[in-house]
Design brief:
Radius of gyration: 17 Å
Number of strands: 6
CATH topology of the largest domain: Rossmann fold
Largest sheet: 6 strands, parallel
Strand order of the largest sheet: 2-1-3-4-5-6
Number of domains: 2
Distance between the termini: 42 Å
CATH superfamily of the largest domain: Response regulator
CATH class of the largest domain: Alpha Beta
Number of helices: 10
Strand content: 5-15%
Structural class: alpha/beta
Shape: globular
């Protein structure tokens, strides 16, 4: 029997937290292993129950989501982190990416996105609220600075399509389903794209895709 995805939720707003828990508990393959009201409680809970995924509010009292992740990194925790936030500002998103979190959800759409996000993160994909994609691309400031040479001209039409879908928040499995190919084929494309563009690091392909969506 396939084991369930172990999840903990940390948010200082009990009504919002309960709403997410109620939604998640409807899924047969996901199990809530605990709840926390602040970052300090979250760290202790994660160390105690070793969940697969921790859903953390960024703006928690005592210890923020950012500081919570830093503390977990120090203890070599393998938990995957999904951030919850009211913020759609570039700087907040950039700081989250620098911590190599696995998901980034706006609270306004968390109820609709949380299940897809957990499933994607459990499969080693990165997931962010689809509503963020167009916001970031159309903002003139950009997210990660300006790249002098985007390297897009090196890519095939299929690779550009995959990048466009990544920029739209699609997971590797969703892209595979849409293009009628296997998940392994998409993973191979991702490796090839990174090699052509000389991209290295966690989530860097997603960052590149969002930044260059207008050119795809």
């Amino acid at each position: 029997m396939k084991s369930k995805i172990k999840v903990i939720i940390a948010d200082d707003h009990p009504i919002f937290r309960k709403g997410l828990v109620d939604i998640i508990e409807l899924e047969k393959d996901i199990e809530i292993f605990g709840q926390a009201a602040n970052g300090e409680e979250a760290v202790n809970l994660i160390k105690r129950v070793s969940p697969d995924i921790a859903v953390l509010d960024i703006n928690m009292p005592i210890t923020t989501g950012f500081d919570t992740v830093r503390e977990l990194r120090k203890s070599n925790s393998l938990v995957k982190v999904i951030f919850l936030t009211m913020h759609n500002e570039h700087e907040i998103f950039k700081r989250a990416m620098e911590l190599n979190v696995s998901g980034y959800l706006l609270k306004d759409s968390a109820a609709e996105d949380i299940i897809d996000c957990i499933h994607a993160v459990a499969k080693e994909d990165f997931y962010f609220s689809p509503a963020l994609s167009n916001y970031f691309v159309t903002n003139q400031r950009g997210i990660f600075g300006t790249l002098e040479n985007t390297g897009i001209e090196k890519l095939t039409s299929t690779e550009k399509t995959i990048l466009r879908l990544i920029a739209n928040g699609k997971t590797s499995q969703e892209i595979a389903d849409q293009l009628f190919v296997s998940r392994k084929t998409i993973d191979n494309h991702r490796v090839n794209i990174c090699a052509k563009l000389d991209l290295h690091g966690v989530n860097v392909l997603m960052k590149y895709a969002i930044q260059n969506k207008a050119n795809l």
